[in-house]
Amino acid sequence: MSDALMNTYGRLPVTLVRGEGARVWDDSGREYLDALAGIAVCGLGHAHPAVAEALADQARRLVHVSNNYHIPTQQELGRRIAERAGQERVFFCNSGAEANETAIKIARRYGHDRGIEAPRIVVCEQAFHGRTLATLTATGNPKAQAGFGPLVEGFDRVPFGDIDAIRTLADERADIVAVMIEPVQGEGGIRPLPKGRLAELRALCDEMGWLLICDEIQSGMGRTGAWFAQQHDGVTADVTTVAKALGNGVPIGACLARGEAGETLVPGSHGTTFGGNPLACRAGLAVLDAIDQGALVERAAVLGERMVSGFRQTLGDLDGVREIRGRGLMIGIELDRECGELMRRALDAGLLINVTAGNTLRLLPPLIITDDEADRIVDGVATIARDFLAEG
Question: What is the pTM of this model?
Fold first, then answer.
């Protein structure tokens, strides 16, 4: 069969055609338990009835108009998501990368407004912020950057969450305007910042007059057991980015800001054709309603503890397992060797999982999984990991 698609993905040998809840089926009728949720996108699982009905209803009314006009669903979603994030202003776009691009532009404009000709942003090693040129530069993955130079100027990189390294930069440079960080690194291997570290960073940014930008593309929308992972430390960023689970599969992203950061962009300084259209925002409203009605934020915290505890019991003492870590339903199992082939083995066992950072099993199941489904994921992943490690 000819394939007109660019060769940008190393796809697994399966064609998925239908989903319901935490389960999907391939074109031969085989069922799989989804422990990845489209890489943290389908927090409500697949074919969620309320989301499907909202989309169908909105599609019969109005799918798209430009941002030259007021859009009621956009205004309502903006108000509600800003409340949950402790923010004041929202810019809607279509993806996490676009949300992070907006955050970078806010930081640069913020710097220029202070007379800084070439503003700089502090970012972290092992970070992942997107694949556009600016977000790719902010990303701390040399493999992802290879072949795409020259990259964008204006970023300084430090070890993940290293306050001392950031203070050293502050002493050396007067042109830093922001720190951009993931409270939990997702692509970097499910690495949460140590408890209290984000609060230290918040205090440093306040001291220096910098913006704190929290990339919550993967960790937001209740996945960690709080609406946003920064809230575990009682922190509110100046700029917060969200996407992935906001539309449960409908492409939508948002850059939220408060204070001066929320007033930095003005008409003509930024924009989007599709961002915040009626259909995408109706999906977002349905997602917020379903998370609230199902108390799924609290549920994610409980399920995460259950699954991490299960993994520590089944794998914690096993040679070859370096660390089991997580926050809510962001769970990583780091091995002492490359383990990409476990995605294929999991598929054979009826599970959808992911391997990130080369050696870390990444689990991002839907927030709607049952206790039994959570236990099945633990048992299935533990079995394939044990068998793999036993082979030496």
Answer: 0.97
